[in-house]
Design brief:
The chain has helices spanning about 1-55, 65-80, 85-105, 110, 115-150, 155-160, 175. By secondary structure, the chain is mostly helical. The N and C termini lie far apart (about 90 Å).
Amino acid sequence: MIGWIILAVVVIIVIAVIAMYNGLVQARIKVDNAWSQIDVQLQRRFDLIPNFVETVKGYMTHESETFEKIAELRTAWANTDNVSEKATLDNELSTALKTIMAVSESYPDLKANQNFSELSEELRNTENKISFSRQFYNDTVTMYNTKLEIFPSNIIAGMFNFKARDLFEAESAEARKNVKVDFGK
């Protein structure tokens, strides 16, 4: 009888370990999927930017520094797979785009341009999708990281080398500042 009890306990423990492991794997896959959704939206934004910049360039010749910065950020973003580096680059790009949008307010001809209007709307929609994707990613990472920390799944996570993921933190002190527009250049 004791043998059956020991066997039942071992079977229950094995089933619990398998269930916790599978739960951790599912959570990790959800995090990867959430990141890929951010990546897709960021790529979409980077695909829109060259057209947007070309439309704006003719009106804002004194903003060439901003345009060069956008080109550099686009190249750097394409060359990295690191979440925190992409978050930093995304933050810098958002600041540059805010500058262009703020400056565009002073150019009525530009604002009336059909291409500019359409591209601006596309960028706004993409920014909204990026914001939603970031929130979803952070929620998913938080759930995953919580599973890595709570008992008893933390034991399984340690045994199978599951690692915590970084949250997408694109907002910095610099991004919270108002955009400064200087026409004195």
